[in-house]
Amino acid sequence: VQLQASGGGLVQAGGSLRLSCAASGRTIRDFHMGWFRQAPGKEREFVAAISRSGSGFGTHYADSVKGRFTISRDNAKNTGYLQMNSLKSEDTAVYYCAITQILWAYVDESRRYTNWGQGTQVTVSS
Q1: Phi, psi of 111 (to 5 degrees)
Q2: CB-based contact 80:73 (threshold 8 Å)
Q3: Residue 89 — φ and ψ, nearest 5°?
Q4: What is the DSSP letter of 52?
């Protein structure tokens, strides 16, 4: 499965962006999808995850983005999304989408993910 992340850019603090993650090669309906980010000089961190089809599309968010970011997916389009509102300068990072079939309890662990997109830069100016 190949993942292509897009939608990043430069936005002012308080603004919004919508990231997309398009999959090709096979359907991703049987995979959980996650978004991670990595800021310069920092480790990659979990942002959000959405469960695979058949699991009620449960979601999980990092505390730092809860209430501001919304993860979703459209299995018909084989695409996932991350809507980011009320952006802050500390949200500046390269954002990556990824998929996994691991147990839901581990979706915030990047090492559990098997396929990754190439990353899209999000820059929030204050």
Answers
A1: -70, -15
A2: yes
A3: -60, -30
A4: P
Distance of CA 60 to the CA centre of its chain: 11
Residue 64 corresponds to which tokens in the numbers above? Answer: 């730092």
Kind of pairing between the strands at 79-84 and 69-74: antiparallel
Q: Are residues 101 and 23 in contact, defined by beta-carbon separation less than 8 angstroms? A: no
Average model confidence (pLDDT) across the chain: 96
Pairing of strands 9-12, 120-125: parallel
pLDDT digit string (tens) for 52-70? 976 677 999 999 999 999 9
- Mean pLDDT, residues 74-100 taken together: 97
**Rounded-to-integer distance, Cα 90 and Cα 104, Å:** 27
